[in-house]
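Board notes (copied after class):
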Amino acid sequence: MKAWTYITTNQHNKVLYTGVTSDLKGRMESHKTKKYPNAFTARYNANKLVWFQEFDCIIDARERERQLKAGNRARKIKLIEEMNPGWEDLYETLQVQGA
């Protein structure tokens, strides 16, 4: 079963949230609609997908999430800018990729 580690941010790219899921498209829809209004992503409007990495199993995705959360902001920014230099919302690419 596929899984993803991902990073979201807000409109001004100030807040970074790192998460893991087995349904990236569904999770992003939850973030965008603020399905859980008390969640960090809802409170800080971190609903713009700026980076993600696919894994073959959730265990590997969770390990990657732990690595990213243990790292500093500069490392996360470097990862984002390697994949997405314009900090565009990658949510639309999920429709094409079928994530």
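Comment from the instructor: The chain has one domain: 3-97. The radius of gyration is 12 Å.
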